[in-house]
Write a structure and sequence with these properties.
The structure holds two protein chains of two kinds. Chain A is α/β, with parallel strands linked by helices. Chain A has eleven helices and 15 strands. In chain A, the strands form three sheets. In chain A, strands 7-8-9-4-10-11 form a six-stranded mixed β-sheet, sandwiched between helices. A five-stranded antiparallel β-sheet of chain A has the order 1-3-2-5-6. Chain B is mainly alpha-helical. Chain B is 74% helix and 0% strand. Chain B has eleven helices and no strands. The longest helix of chain B has 32 residues. The radius of gyration of chain B is 21 Å and the shape is globular. Chain B starts with 21 loop residues before the first helix and ends in a 6-residue tail after the last helix. Classes of the chains: A alpha/beta, B mainly alpha. The interface between A and B is large, with 47 and 39 residues.
Chain lengths: 344, 275
């Protein structure tokens, strides 16, 4: 666990990791979710969208929420934001109970839920910032300097007086982020913040987001299907499946699990019959047929590696290539959820 | 943070943000409405042209068919048409606005506001009402010129009575807005109710006592008396004015409660902001 993380888990199987490792000290966490549960429908048609989720996010940290379609990510985020009333559970934002004092709890919260369409395209960039600062309960004149700083930081200063509709997609996305931060929100929810951006724009936004988190001590909950974004921006990742949290750890820890070191072997002699036999062996995590022969992937630190090599030698199988495979977050996600990949 | 924020500063030397009050909220919402109006006047101009086109059809077509009978009652028709354009603007403002906010993805941000969703929606409704007053005043002026009619336009009488009259419709708009949050694409069906306003505006002619409790009806009668008959605000009976205020407050409060209930239900069902 890295600094800034704390207790997380599902209702029954609370992976009650340690409390904060360092950094946060006695400070109230930015966000505490305790036993959140939400069902839709009734009787046999009841669907449990969120099933007893507990989650703590310390101030100044970025948590990514991942999960396949229908995992409950959106319902969880909307429940935290008060847009969906949960059946059970508590949400505390900066120490304030969201059910008892919603206006006070959400005073420092803002969200970018719909990508670029998160502000008024007919207004200019600066007008949006002033309007949404006011809606957030902050007098816009008192944060004018902050707005200038934000626009400067996000490369929007020259476009401050341009209507949002006349900006590129990347610029619009940045305006969304700026307007979310315009009122001085301390807890921010970002849903697919880089959706539809080209690689360069996405990287710029990721970089600026990370810098803003550090400078403004923001608490961010981010949902994205883009693993690069999650790896770059998030301190910690929460993976959901069927309404529960099935994994919660730092990005580094998820990438460096015991079986994270793997080898990929290819050979023209790997025909379908041999691949089928190899797939049954311990340590082999995947096989695939190629145009010429096949490919197997196996855990590099498994004892089986030596036995396998000996068996291949006995059969006279000559290997064509041997290479080390870097495990990325997507691999970790696939292993944990058993799906083909994250979906937004 | 000080009461007005003066002199306070954050650790990095930047001024401490000051809280915005309801006055600033209203100003921000009105300013946004103004910006959209002056920058993209096509919608407003289109509405005015359509309203005047239909009035032209009513007036010139009616004169050909009914002749003097229509000319004799033209003052009442103009007042009624003016009130109808006001009512349609007030009614559709909230529900249409909410529908647009859902599409733009800005609704959620108005839900999370520390002011509360309903007060912000009310502020936006009032802003739309102000805009509608301006366009309806223009329509009224053109109607008077078109027909060569004169009416008593004592502002201290006409504005409060017209405003209180359409506040009851604003309440209906609030209820419609709540239903839009719940059921989304029902806007077109709800807009059909606008034609019911014609009946309500002409309800005084039916001379039914209970009809005065309906939205628009009593206010319409008072507006006719002031604009056609020249009655001043202080010349109305206390009972008339109390009924005007009571009906306005009643429908606004009722609509507000329906809106609150509908948005609560939308949150329970998880459909708030869905489109």
């Amino acid at each position: 666990m890295t600094a800034g993380e704390s207790v997380v888990g599902t209702g029954e199987s609370t992976a009650a990791a340690d409390t904060t490792a360092s950094g946060a000290g006695d400070a109230e966490p930015g966000l505490v979710v305790d036993g959140l549960r939400k069902t839709f429908g009734s009787g046999p048609d009841t669907v449990t969208a969120v099933d007893g989720v507990s989650l703590t996010v310390d101030r100044g940290s970025v948590v990514g929420v991942l999960g396949p379609n229908g995992a409950g990510k959106t319902t969880l985020i909307k429940s935290i934001l008060g847009m969906v009333y949960p059946d059970e559970g508590e949400v505390r934002i900066d120490g304030v109970d969201a059910r008892e004092s919603p206006r006070s709890a959400y005073a420092g919260v803002d969200a970018m839920l719909e990508g670029a369409r998160n502000d008024y395209w007919r207004l200019t960039v600066r007008e949006n910032l002033r309007y949404f600062a006011t809606i957030s309960g902050v007098a816009p004149d008192s944060v004018a300097a902050r707005h200038d700083r934000l626009l400067d930081r996000l490369g929007l200063a020259e476009k401050a007086d341009v209507a949002v509709r006349d900006l590129s997609r990347g610029m619009k996305q940045k305006v969304s982020l700026a307007s979310v931060l315009a009122g001085g929100a301390t807890v921010v929810f970002l849903d697919e913040p880089t959706l539809g951006l080209d690689v360069e724009s996405s990287r710029t936004l990721q970089r600026e987001l990370r810098r803003l988190v550090a400078e403004e001590d923001l608490t961010v909950v981010l949902s994205s299907h883009d693993m690069d974004v999650v790896e770059t921006v998030c301190d910690r990742v929460v993976i959901m499946s069927e309404g529960r949290i099935v994994a919660d750890d730092s990005v580094d820890a998820l990438l460096r699990t015991d079986d994270s070191h793997r080898l990929e072997l290819t050979s023209p002699a790997f025909d379908d019959g041999l691949l089928g036999a190899l797939a049954e062996r311990d340590g082999v995590v995947g096989t695939a047929s190629l145009d010429r022969g096949g490919r197997i992937e196996l855990r590099a630190d498994s004892e089986e590696l030596y036995a396998l090599m000996a068996a291949l030698d006995d059969r006279g199988v000559a290997l064509e290539t041997v290479r080390s495979v870097e495990r990325d977050l997507e691999d970790a996600f696939v292993d944990i959820t058993g799906t083909g990949g994250p979906e937004p | 943070m000080t009461a007005d924020g003066a002199g306070a500063a954050t650790a990095d030397g930047a001024p401490e943000p000051r809280r915005a009050g309801y006055l600033q909220l209203m100003r921000a919402v009105l300013y946004r409405e103004y910006l959209v109006f002056v920058r993209y006047p096509a919608n407003a101009v289109g509405g005015v042209v359509v309203a005047l086109f239909f009035f032209g059809l009513l007036f010139y077509g009616g004169r050909m068919v009914a002749g003097r009978a229509l000319t004799d009652s033209i003052e009442g028709i103009i007042v009624g048409y003016f009130l109808w354009t006001l009512s349609v603007g007030a009614y559709s403002s909230i529900s249409n606005d909410i529908g647009s906010e859902v599409q733009w993805g800005t609704l959620e941000r108005h839900v999370m506001t520390p002011f509360g969703f309903a007060p912000v929606a009310l502020a936006k409704g009032v802003a739309k009402l102000v805009r509608t007053f301006l366009t309806s005043a223009f329509i009224l002026a053109v109607m008077l010129v078109m027909t060569g009619t004169t009416l008593s336009l004592h502002l201290l009488t006409v504005v409060p009575i017209a405003a209180l009259t359409v506040v009851s419709v604003l309440g209906l708009g609030f209820a419609a807005g709540g239903i839009t949050v719940l059921y989304k694409r029902v806007g077109n069906w709800l807009n059909l109710l606008q034609f019911g306003f014609i009946v309500l505006i002409s309800a005084p002619a039916l001379d039914l006592g209970w009809a005065r409790l309906l939205p628009l009806a009593h206010g319409s009668a008072l507006l006719q008396r002031s604009m056609v008959g020249g009655t001043r605000l202080w010349e109305f009976s206390v009972l008339d004015l109390a009924l005007l205020v009571g009906v306005a407050a009643g429908y606004l409060a009722g609509g507000y409660l329906v809106f609150q209930a509908a948005t609560r239900r939308a949150r329970r069902l998880g459909v708030l902001g869905d489109y």
